[in-house]
Amino acid sequence: MMRDVNETFREVIQAIFPLTLAVVLLLLVFVGIGLDDLISFLMATVLTVIGMTFFLTGVKMSMLPIGEAIGADLPKHNSLAFIAVVAFLLSFFVAIAEPNVNVLINMIDSALQGSINNNLLIISIAFGVGLLMAISILRIVFGTPIKYLFAASYSIILLLSFFVPTDYLAIAFDSGSVTTGAMIVPVIMGLGVGMASVLQDRSELDGFGLIGLASIGPILSLMLLGVLSS
Q1: What is the CA radius of gyration of the chain?
Q2: CA end-to-end span of the chain, whole Å?
Q3: CA 125 – CA 147 distance, rounded (Å)
């Protein structure tokens, strides 16, 4: 475990140190921040590093293995419906638990002053992730080239963009980015790679691309929500 913590700590430092250095230089050169505020910022940065280290270590040790284990077990049930339902439910609830989703919802609520129901937005985002993940997992089973799914999905997005209200259109595209969060990525990648690894005539590379497909789900679901509510 300590090895995982140390490895994750180095990764977090490599990610945060350049950003922290840039912010400190900007604050000192252009903003003229006081010493007390600078110390508070540095202390908050240290807490961020510690928190992210333990959070990401936990994700690596729990969510990724769970995703791989479930993905490897699904084909053994010989039921496409069962595979699709499990993939949908797992992705749906992981999306709800994703911290990035909550950040986005809070920003939307602040900008639109509660004009869009927060729970409806969360469910729509999670539903989109779950639906596209179920389709993506079935794609692995049938061996369908991923380019066809991308082409069809973005064609639908392009068509819907002409009918979606402006507020929903902007929110929809931003919602796609939340599927690259620390909770969703390990589960989705683990699920796809785990499933592809146990299927005959499939390479583990067939389990990749699911993050890109999952990011389409919230875009489509919020676009449809916008069309229906207009």
Answers
A1: 20
A2: 52
A3: 23
Closest CA to 75 of 148, 3, 142: 142
Please answer whether residues 221 and 124 qualify as being in contact, where contact means their C-beta atoms are separated by less than 8 angstroms. yes
- Note the Cα 84 to chain centre separation in Å: 19
Of 215, 193, 198, the residue nearest 65 (C-alpha):
193
Determine how many CB atoms are found less than 10 A away from the CB of residue 219.
Answer: 27
Nearest residue to 94 via CA among 62, 117, 57, 54 = 62
- Determine the Cα–Cα distance for residues 129 and 220; give it in Å rounded to an integer: 10
Q: Measure the CA–CA gap between 49 and 56, rounded to whole angstroms.
A: 10
Matching residue, tokens 């997992």 = 137
How many H-runs (helices) and E-runs (strands) does the chain carry? 9, 0
pLDDT in tens, 134-184: 988 888 888 888 888 899 999 999 999 898 888 778 888 888 887 777 778
| DSSP category for residue 76 | G
Distance of CA 64 to the CA centre of its chain: 14
Per domain, the residue ranges of the chain are 62-229
> What does the pLDDT look like over 192-227, one tens digit per residue?
777 777 776 666 667 677 888 888 989 998 888 888
Please classify residue 70 by burial: count the beta carbons closer than 10 Å to its beta carbon, then call 0-12 exposed, 13-18 middle and 19+ buried: middle
